Amino acid sequence: MQIRFEPMDMATAEHLRGGGADSYGNVAERKVSDGAGVPCRCCMRLVGKGEPYLVAAWRPFSATHAYAETGPVFLHAEPCTAATVEPDQLPAFLESPDYILRGYDADERIVYGTGGVIRREAIPARIRQLLGAPGVKAVHIRSSRNNCYHCKAVAD
């Protein structure tokens, strides 16, 4: 099984960059990166020091329901190239020593028992294990320190 990492969709990024409302109805906040770990959810690369970026509330689910978490995400303030990550290769912006991985079913509900903090080097193996489990269709990767959503992994 190959793993494909999915970033924030370009339509959402363009909407936010154009001043559109985030998942809480607010315009994204504009900041300037200090170069210390500002991961763009669109291109899945870090925002460079001195580059402008946006902070917005985003719900990476197709509908609202009890499991549809909303949280802060960063993205380049200026258009960036959509992420192109080779299958099975971790996106460049996953630099922390560990992350929360959580499995979701086809209805975007958490599959209980799948969540946990996983060391960075163990992420691909854990994703394969989760995607091979009954009912798991996607794995969300979140910050283990701030619970911010980073990206989704699916079987390719």
From TrEMBL:
Organism domain of life: Bacteria
Record-linked InterPro entries: DUF1203
Pfam family, one: DUF1203
UniProt name for this protein: DUF1203 domain-containing protein
